[in-house]
Amino acid sequence: MTDHETEEELVKRFLRYVKVPSQSEANGGVKVPSTESQWDMAHLLQEELNALGMADVSLSDKCVLTGYLPANLPTGAPHVPAVGFCAHMDTVDVSLSPVVKPRRVRYEGGDIVLNEKENIVMRAAEHPELAPYVGQELIVTDGTSVLGADNKAAVANVMTALATLAGDASIPHGDIYVSFVPDEECGLWGSKNMDFTKFPVAYAYTIDCCALGEVVYETFNAGSAAVTIQGVSAHPMSAKGVLVNPTLLAVDFVNLFDRSETPECTEGTEGYIWCQTIRSNPSTAVVELNIRDHDKARYEGRKRLILENIEKLQKREPRARVTYTMEDTYGNIADAVTDANRSAIDNLYEAMNRLDITPKTIAMRGGTDGSFISTKGILTPNYFTGALNFHSNCEFLPIPSLRKSYEVTMELIALACEKAK
């Protein structure tokens, strides 16, 4: 296909996918998928994978869709490691409409009127990230929803690559595995429910960050803690010496932490403990904490600090009963890098070099499905979709950047063959 034909195929798929509502809903993994609408997206992709002739196409009871394109190699060719691609099917719920109404615009500078009727405008003064895309065609929202390029740009990318490979027997490649997962936006619950026997790859990629050239192989180590404070309730008329107020103890507990090590006071690779919520009534308070750090030792130190502060609180008020739960959520991708799998990252930079894309390496203050998959021994770095302003009604996708992301995908597949021994 020509560049124009490739762009049109990518755009056609992307527009088809974003028009399928598939918002997820935070519920702590109690139900996966968290919303029924994600099944609609999964069934659409399942039909398309089957139509391409993919092997072992399987949709699990947790809405994880897997399959693979068998290798296409000449007789006597060296072994090519299996490569995987993972993308999430859900879009984020940020209290906007689940229905996406995308449109294409040629950006000539200045403001973009997203919705004239509702007077919703993406103002250039507020969005300097628009400036590099003057003269390019963009896909934007109508201002009432996110666009859903996070992560349906990746779905379109991967599906177009599979269609290209399946339709052209002249392109050599090894086994290409895919996994489309739900509920990434509310805790990586899709990747946590993957059957890795159906994803037997040497390494994998997610395509789940923003502007052209972005590369991520450093993410947070992430965990959570819930601290429950059981107080003693009493009527105010007889409360003296009896009442143990769990709400005030929860405030005391939160104040034991360093206010300079919170999300609003940190950047780059600086970690934090984030008091996300306090829920309380006259007898019980629950404090929910998020724990984040790129450095594994510092991350473990933050977990220990929580336990030390629980002990301090208990000593301060021995009549209260303080309990906790704590769990790891995902790990830093960089901690999974070894000499044996480093080629997954090296190939990413080489692919961009061949395509004249300037890499922008980012230590992500968050995580991807690859952050969890990497803890399972499958190094899974991340690269750009091309879209900007994720989780916003001002999210937009420059079409040339979408094409470049697809070209990186194809180049990675080619490099796996070229470097096979």
TrEMBL record:
Gene3D superfamilies: 3.30.70.360, Zn peptidases. InterPro entries: ArgE/DapE_CS (IPR001261), Bact_exopeptidase_dim_dom (IPR036264), Peptidase_M20 (IPR002933), Peptidase_M20_dimer (IPR011650), Peptidase_M20B (IPR010161). The active site is at D90, E184. The keyword ATP-binding does not apply. Its EC number is 3.4.11.4. Its cofactor is Zn(2+). GO terms for biological process: peptide metabolic process; proteolysis. This is Peptidase T. The gene is pepT.
